Amino acid sequence: MLDTGQKYIYTGSSDHSVYIYDLVTGAQVARLDHHEGPVRDCSWHPLYPILVSSSWDGTVARWEFPGDDQVPTLMRPKLRPRRVFY
Prior knowledge:
The protein is an all-beta fold. It is built from no helices and 7 strands. It is globular, with a radius of gyration of 12 Å.
C-alpha cells in the first residue's frame, strides 16, 4: 500500500501526467497517464490509498492503490476544475 505520510511526494505535470517520487531515494516510483491536458492539481486522501488529479482538459481522475493497474475512475464536471483536495 502506498502511504504518502513521509515516504512519497506527488506532482502534476504539463506533459499530462502525475508523477510519484520516493522522498528518501528521489526515485520515480510511478507515472500516471490519463489526462489530455496539463495536470493542474492532485491530492492524496489522508486515510485511504487514493489520489485525485484534475486537469485543464476538464477531467478529474481518481487513482486507487495498491495494484499493478492504476486505472482511474473518471468524472467530467461541467466547469473546469480549479483545485482538488481531501
